[in-house]
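Batch 3, record 17
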Amino acid sequence: MRPFEYASPNSKEQVAALLGTSWEQGAILAGGTDLLALMKDDVVTPRRLVNVKGIDTLRGTSYQPGNGLRIGALTTIAELADSKDLAQYPMLFEAVTEAASPQIRNLATIGGNMCQRPRCWYFRSGMGLMPMTKDGKSLVVAGDNRYAAILGTQTGAYFVSPSTIAPALIAYGAKVRIYSAKASGSGVRELPLGRFFITPKSAKEREHDLKPDEMVIELIVPPPPQNLKTGYFEVRQKAAFDWPLAMAAVALQMDGNTVKSARVVMGHVAPVPWVSDEAAATLVGKTITPDTAMAAANAAVTKAKPLSMNKYKITLAKAAVKRAVLKAGGAA
Amino acid sequence: MSQYSWPDPATQPLLGKKILRIDGPSKSSGRAKYTYDYNPDGLLAGKIVRCPYAHARITSIDTSAAEKMPGVKAIEIVQKPGTEIFWAGDEIVGVAAVDEGTAEDAVRAIKVGYEVLPHFVSDAEPPKNLAPDTGPISQDDFESMEDNQVPDDEAIAILKKQGVSFTADEKWYKSMEGEGTDPKVIAALRAAKVLPPSESKSPYKRTATQKQGDPDKAFASAAATHEGVYGVPCIVHCCMESHGSASEWGGSNDLTVHISTQNLSGIAAQMAEPLNTPAANIRVLQQNIGGGFGSKFAADRWDIVAAKLSKSAGGKPVKMMLTREEEFEVAGMRPSAYARVKLAADKSGKLVAWQSNSWGTGGMGGGGTPPIPYIFDVPNQRKQHTAVATNQGSARAWRAPNHPQAALITMAAFEDLAAQLKMDPVDMLRANMDILGPRAKTYAEELEIAEQLMGWKQNWHPRGDKTAGPVKRGLGLSIHTWGGRGHNSDQDLSIHPDGSVDLKVGSQDLGTGTRTIIAMVIADTLGIPLEQVTVHIGDNRYPPSGGSGGSTTVGGVSSAARRGAVDARDMLLEKVAPALKAKPEELEVANGVVRVKTDPSRSLSWKDACAKIGAVPLTVRGKNPDKSKPPDLTNSGVGGVQMADVSVDAETGIVRVNKMVAVQDCGLVVNVETAESQVKGALIMGISYALYEEKILDPVTGRVLNPNLEFYRLAGLNDVGELVVHMMTGKGYDDRGVIGLAEPPVVSPGAAISNAVANAIGVRVPFLPLTPARVIDALEQGGVA
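Prediction for the assembled complex:
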């Protein structure tokens, strides 16, 4: 193991000071389920680990009908699954109870879940987010790309965003709050969770809108509007403890039997949680039937560009969207 | 003359009953110690510098920086500059340091230069117009033939026909014999012509066409002919405990090795030569093993390196256990096998002709030849196999070598042909009973039971579940066979004057219940409770016993235990007879009492009887085989029938196994509990390779892309469905003697599940594993979706 410093601050201000301005300088240690594995595999080599588990204000959930749900970044996935505050968010409950394994849910935090790194096998063997062959071509395109992205790959990034909880949160319109010493005023900046995930344009960039000295501190999920219906579906090979091959989280605001507005978010199909406005648009003004669900599913993948081995993921993504829409509509 | 034959299980308290493992509590409570748990004071951690390229030549090795690092205690160069390396992960330098972290740092500090060479890792279909390879067999070719368990008669035929390109010394012949090469094969090797080595650089080696009968005529006159392609990729053993050992040297050049092995009594002989140490000085220990499945027969190169590092470090213990990633790259795998098959039947469904062009890889050696057509002695055949050499770690025996591949290729073609004939495959199997060989009667009996347990008649439907909705259900079947004769086993059984009983044998319990089986046989024979027998295994100072491979252990250890226990009992009766004023042959033992058969009131308790032994224990040697003590207590040849019930989601391609039925014979079942448990384990392993397992090699880098249990998936509890196991017992089975069980039940699941999926969706998914990608792809070619 490469040597590293270990710091255990008890305020977020101290964290920022300890992290430094490059990713190599410091890394935040929360649940550690991803970071420690990356360090053991020599994929990341931070010189300092900043243990944030001592910052109690970052832990726990609260729900207020007017303000919605606040989730502290250090809240574990298991704590979320047990929290009564999720009663208004059945799709979020489903997403957290389906994630990973009980052992991992006991340790992993929601902040870490948002910040976890891709599972792309080239990335995990230390070849970077946008691995290249010796002659400068994409290794994912030339190599084995059965699990690679089918959407949003224009920049040459082919990994898929790993979080299965983020698509559900984005469908609910969640925001992420980030502590940033440089942010004006309170030192906290807030952005829609959907914008937190970005597709790197070069190997030097990362897949999150986060600077090396910033820290995710909480997630805010707005109160669900009246008549919000949600549906969640993961296509995964194993019944438990497996990454989906494609997934979808759908939130429909209904007006009687008609969809007033819709959010369709897919997971494991793109380098970011993929918000499909095309799919959402097909649903507005419609009632939910197998046909309208199928139309949304078809719209969701019209821009898909498969590689040599991942064409099946288009079929799977469609099935996920269709089923999530039908679940939201109460049909399945 | 003592009666050694097996008693009727109906008359015995333990034999043929469901008896829990005697080591269950120690394992379930975590008290059982594995090689991995050996952590003495002063232990050094061993690590290996491995080649990152699939094909390269070492140009330089610089260990100077590592040597200067504090905590680094020894460094051992495994392969020198100039050596050509044929797979990623191969061993280059070994390191021992005070802890794992320091050893890893040292590994990183060692600089190895490579000339990177082109690699080849694809086992896709070979070019059509390859000429058969007739060149001489190299030493490497031969060793991989043996590693891949090429059948002896096939190996002999190849050696005779093609000659060899090397001359070996006596030491090498001895080492091959030590690793289990049949003496007949060794003789063929010695007799083979020595020719100049073949110039060919092609990765493909095609055998000459084998022909039987008149396939052209048979195909021309057949009622139905089906052509298809089928196959299974390379998969990995995935032992929960990785490979490895801990070695330490004592005062007078004595070596003690704790090792995770299936071959405890065979390890010392393998380590003696490379370590230049008499085998008599090498003590080998192992109480428990976390899985082997055929991959743990050898003292591996990393084990030898650990012992050398220990010596350099003044004899301090060095533990070298592989990481999961290393397991995937270098610790063995099951060869892939694919085939284009043409199969024909007459209108009754009876098979009349088989043609196959098969191929597969087992690493540089090319892999074994699947025995196809499997079981069916199709009268007219033409077949050819192409071994594909790939730059990856060598294949090792994987539970029932070559059989699961052969079963998939044969039984999938069989059910596809049945579908074409619009026949129920159960009926078509019945129509072929007379070409199913020596186990035909067993298959017929098992088929009836399996049919009942699966509800086949009620639930089977012709190809393609026509019910509404995306989830399609289907049934499939397969049959399998295996040998399973008991191996050599020597055991020392002692009855102590205080009535306690113990047995010593240099065997291993792979988790199958070997300890329990031995104790049961002794307890029954001596008429005492199971708890009164202590079984000592896992030390090569005990009498030698064979490696646990090829389903040979239960037959070997139970036969030797029976002979030893009968002898010990009869010797005891001789000593006790005067006290009971009877002749020894008038006495019997049962329920912890020695008594006169005709007058049970004249008796002695077991303890009182044993007091007559004298001052030292009564010790006898039980053996298998032992022609002087007939009859043969073990046998060879079993049959099994399996059926699968699956649901396939035609929109997502996800396959779920609802139920598996396994009907299995293994001669006389010693312990029904452990037997059923072993079959269930095989079903779970089979479901895993049917649905999930595939060693994925990157065409660009030549590295394993999924050397982990994240993208190399194994079935979890929720993935296995209902498992129904029926063991065949009674007349025709009990009287055959004890036969091994480990391999046979793992042969059929892939074929049965693949057939069930085809039955559900109406189209064949040609290759395992049955992933969503492959199911969706097959559905796009046709089927019910």
